[in-house]
Amino acid sequence: MTYLGAPDPGRSRGNTAVTVVVILVAAVASALPREQQSLIEAGVRATVLSPFLALHRASAERSSVARRAGALQAERDSLVEVVMRLRALADQAGELRALSSLPAPNVGGVRPVEVYPGRPRVGDPDVFVLRGEGLESLEFPAGVFTGNGVVGVARAPHLGGARGEFWSHPDFRVSVITEDGSVSGIVRAARLAGEQPIMLLEGAPFQSDIAPGTVLNTTGISGVYPPGIAVGTVRGLAEAEAGWMKSYFVEPAAFPARTGVALIWDRPPVELLMPLAADSLTRPAPDPPASASGDSTAAPAGT
Amino acid sequence: MRGAGRWVVIGLIIVSHFAFHPLWGSWPAGPDLLSGGLLLASLGLRPGRAAALGLGLGLLEASMALGPLGPTMLVLAVGGFGGAWFRAMFYSDTARFTPTLLITGVIVIQLALALVGATGLGLSTGLLLIPVSAVVTAAVCWTAERVVGFFIL
User: Fold this and answer.
1) Which of A2, A31, A49 lies at the smallest CB-CB distance from B64?
2) Fewer CB within 10 Å of terminal CB in chain A, N or C?
3) Is the pLDDT of residue A186 over 80?
């Protein structure tokens, strides 16, 4: 026995064998496909780490409810007002569809989920794990959003939950359109040196100008997100490729770090989705300027 | 501190790491209790067993932090092995040995984890945040040893 009561380090065969096995196991784990690694992680989270995750959940719920009680009350009141206004519109649209013998739109439903982000430095802060009821029956990828806007996309099931990426992930893309329906493009994450990630709108037609403060919504064209979910607000021009297209910086509508609870889209069958997405792209602008209606409507983006 | 008391401290340090995981993640230079607990444990284990402990802790950490599974397991296994090997090679019974090992070991483990991680290693992280985190870790582990030792021994 030596320092601190430790046994001699020894060069015994047993010690060497254990070390070799450990290195081999780590090497095998590194070589596993992403899906199998995700399955192992999910198993560990559901067993050994389960008490710790329950503790984190209880602590987060307690602090957020206490902190946001006033804000939640205000949000609920404003939502009641919005629902009252939209109910009249929905009734009116239903009557018009009945007169025109059009089927009722099926926009699917949403399921509430808890969001667990990855840890910075050790893990990947741009990915998350979702926990909620009935996620195994969903089709992936599926959009994840809050009342503020798009949070990210769930990519695959994760042992009863789901695993996905925040909008800040390099692989994230979403097809967007301005509120008046005049310009569309693709939004992805952008990282400026030393700053928090923001969004970048790419593929906007060169001849179109988007004023700062314009809200961008999802087109719903890919079937990953429902149409009309806020993605962000245009901050300013980022880059203009001569005669070809423009890029804009976009202020995100929802921030990953502030997201604890979100909604995941339970989408209807794809054949019911296409007319819905087409509606969102061909919707006429509310008060179109007489000269701008012809040349500013962009081709729909393919994502 | 020797014997059961030391293992109680190590257990508490590692459990605290997972229990307050979101809290440590929200601090830019918070203590890395996982590496600290692993290095303390490796002082009392043979290199092979210390590596096996590191492998298991790496699996837990990657699952909790949603990090790269294999590389995290490998880094912590090598960290545990290295701690035990370092203690064997540079046998010392001075009061400065453990804090020195903790600071050096935590810096090496965190640098390695940042290099294999998804976000990479920035200049401020490598030169400032990780060294500060290592010093904080050594201070927390040293305090935990003294406080628990005061009640147990």
Assistant:
1) A49
2) N
3) yes
CA distances, A142 to each of A162, A187, A220, A255, A267 (Å):
10, 17, 11, 18, 8
Q: A126 — contact with chain B (CB < 8 Å)?
A: yes
What is the value of ipTM here, to two decimals?
0.88
What percent of chain B clears pLDDT 90, i.e. is strictly above it? 52
Do A19 and A131 reside in the same domain of the chain? Answer: no
* Inter-chain residue contact A26 with B58, CB threshold 8 Å: yes
Return the pLDDT at B52: 96
Q: Verify that A183 and A144 share a domain, yes or no.
A: yes
| Per-residue tokens: A187 | 């939004």
Q: Of B40, B46, B123, B128, which to mutate for an interface test with A (greatest number of A Cβ within 10 Å)? A: B46
**A84 burial level (CB within 10 Å; 0-12, 13-18, 19+):** exposed
Whether A119 sits inside 8 A of B118 (CB atoms) is: no
- The total of structural domains in chain A comes to 3
Same domain (yes/no): A183, A301: yes
**In this structure, is residue A3 part of a structural domain?**
no
pLDDT one-digit tens code per residue, A267-287: 887 666 656 555 655 555 445
Structure tokens at A264: 């995941």
> Do A150 and A93 share a structural domain?
no
Full domain range(s) for residue A79 = 54-104
- On whether any CB of chain B is under 8 Å from the CB of A118, the answer is yes
pLDDT band for position A34 (cuts 50, 70, 90): confident
Distance of residue A180 Cα from the nearest chain B Cα, in angstroms: 37
Q: Which of B39, B57, B63 to mutate to test the interface with A (most CBs of A within 10 A)?
A: B63
3-state secondary structure of A251: strand
Residue A164 corresponds to which tokens in the numbers above? 């996905």
Nearest residue in A to B23, CA atom: A56
